[in-house]
Amino acid sequence: RYANDIQVGTPVQLDFRRYGAGVRTAEVTFVGRTIDPESRTFSIEATVSNERGTLKPEMGVNLRVTRAVIDSAITIPRSAVVRDESGTHAYVAERTDSTDVARKRTLALGPSSGGRVVVESGLSATDEVIVVGQNDVSPGAPVSIAQQYDSTTAAGTPYEGSSSLPTPPTD
Question: What's the predicted TM-score (pTM) here?
């Protein structure tokens, strides 16, 4: 599935934090030619600096490869996605008269990373997605908005507006 995304020169992040050696960036220097059919793995090599001598032989590493960069997308927490027999959905809070009610939106999802998923269709950038209690609401039910999160803050980009916004929950 990922073999075609990795080539010599592909940038990667190597996570050695469990050994106290931090996260390093490198480029792939070798890609194996075969994929093990049982484990569905293949070999790659990347050369990484070890000036302080913190990296040792046989250390395991978590590797992250950026497969795509999406310049502009609507993303929501994966936990906000509701799956049922009728498909993949999210609930949004919609104002009707003086009341906020839950509305069910059918979603088409794209790639995910860091606890967030790209919404390819089904939501607009101005929709207020219900991220807490979404499994307990039904379409048309009144909802109470306890907290609002700025979407750029939730995505990890520094928010430069009011400092009173809470930190969004993590997955």
Answer: 0.59
Tokens, residue 94? 């919609």
Q: Map residue 134 onto helix, strand or coil.
A: helix
What are 58-71's pLDDT values in tens digits?
A: 888 888 887 777 77
Give the domain ranges of the chain: 3-65, 74-154
DSSP character string of 79-121: GG-EEETTEEEEEEEEEETTEEEEEEEE-EEEEEETTEEEEEE
Q: What is the DSSP string of 135-165?
A: GG--TT-EE-------HHHHTTPPP-S-TTP
CATH domain 74-154 topology: 2.40.420
Fold annotation for 3-65: Elongation Factor Tu (Ef-tu); domain 3 (2.40.30)
CA distances from 103 to 4, 47, 162 (A): 40, 50, 28
Q: Return the DSSP state at 11.
A: E
